[in-house]
Amino acid sequence: MISIMNTGYSYRYNMLIGYGEVKFEDMPFYHTIENNAIFVLSAGVSYIISNSIPFLAIMIYGRKILRIINNFYTPFSPDMPAYIRNIGIIFILMGFFGKLIRQLLLGFFNFHKLYFHNPLELQWIFIGLLIIVLSDIFRRGVELQRNEDETL
């Protein structure tokens, strides 16, 4: 038996380690949960799709970046700006589609309607834009490093 607790601003449910939480802003305004198991399962799947998979991709790119720094002994390798830019793009996509995916999946599987309300997460979009600016700085650094190596 899965129990769900209404905290006043979200639904909270126990997990293997800790608890899961679904905020009311991710659900339709007027809702009743018919099946706790389907609710918890759809909340978990929507979180994995919208947050865990993108963060896994970011960690993979971060590992590639650290491997490049370790192998070349400089952060200004030709592949570095592309990896940093890809991280920024992932953050921007999370900002545009992360909350939208959570709202659509929760609404469809639990309340049998497609629902979304204010699906933008501006903090992720802003972070993504800053990382893309950082990748352009690294691109310029790669050009300067290449010019310096050619001079010597």
Brief description of this entry?
With 152 residues, this protein is mainly alpha-helical. It has helices at residues 36-72, 80-111, 122-151; strands at 4-6, 10-14, 19-23.
What does this structure look like?
The chain has 152 residues and is mainly α. The protein has 3 helices and 3 strands. The protein has helices spanning 36-72, 80-111, 122-151; strands at 4-6, 10-14, 19-23. The chain has a 3-stranded antiparallel β-sheet, with helices on one face. α1 runs antiparallel to α2 (80-111) and α2 (80-111) runs antiparallel to α3 (122-151). The model has no long low-confidence stretch (mean pLDDT 90).
Please tell me the overall pLDDT.
Answer: 90
Radius of gyration: 21 Å
The total of helices stands at 3
Helix content: 55-70%
The SSE order reads EEEHHH
> Unreliable segments (pLDDT under 50, ≥5 consecutive)?
none
Distance between the termini: 71 Å
Quick one: how many beta strands? 3
Q: How much strand?
A: 5-15%
Structural classification: mainly alpha
Side-by-side strand order of the widest sheet: 1-2-3
Shape: elongated
Specify the biggest β-sheet. 3 strands, antiparallel
Secondary-structure map:
Blueprint: E1 4-6, E2 10-14, E3 19-23, H1 36-72, H2 80-111, H3 122-151
Antiparallel strand pairs: 1-2, 2-3
Helix pairs in contact: 1-2, 2-3
